[in-house]
Amino acid sequence: MGCSYCAFGNGIKVLDWKGKLEKFHSVFQAELMGLKEAIIRASQGNEITKIWSDSLSSVMAVLDPHTPHQLARDIQSLLTQNRNILVRWTKAHVVNRGNEEADTLAKKAITEGVVVKALKPRCGLKEHLHELFF
């Protein structure tokens, strides 16, 4: 599972990052991890930064004050500390250069990305316990 982000300045890609998650991680976790890493990078500057994600479920989880997802809560904490970072949703698979580039990078991350550690998803834990006991 790959995750990524990229940044553009004046229409030119100035930065990108690729991360690789374990096979048992979900697409949802990969989307959140890419978002988290982009926020961490953006927090190094002081300018207003808009981060666009095509994962509506991830954006909604981050906006939900009662989210059960630890990764979404981590992102909420980062955003609280960095009020100049704005997370927005963009429609997937429309002509959006940044989104298309991030999707390409996420595919490359499977073989080229840095290994990223994240908690196993609950659904994976349930499946693993089922395998152990049945």
TrEMBL record:
<dbReference type="InterPro" id="IPR036397">
    <property type="entry name" value="RNaseH_sf"/>
</dbReference>
<dbReference type="GO" id="GO:0003676">
    <property type="term" value="F:nucleic acid binding"/>
</dbReference>
<dbReference type="GO" id="GO:0004523">
    <property type="term" value="F:RNA-DNA hybrid ribonuclease activity"/>
</dbReference>
<protein>
    <recommendedName>
        <fullName>RNase H type-1 domain-containing protein</fullName>
    </recommendedName>
</protein>
<dbReference type="Pfam" id="PF00075">
    <property type="entry name" value="RNase_H"/>
</dbReference>
<dbReference type="InterPro" id="IPR002156">
    <property type="entry name" value="RNaseH_domain"/>
</dbReference>
<dbReference type="InterPro" id="IPR012337">
    <property type="entry name" value="RNaseH-like_sf"/>
</dbReference>
<feature type="domain" description="RNase H type-1">
    <location>
        <begin position="1"/>
        <end position="111"/>
    </location>
</feature>
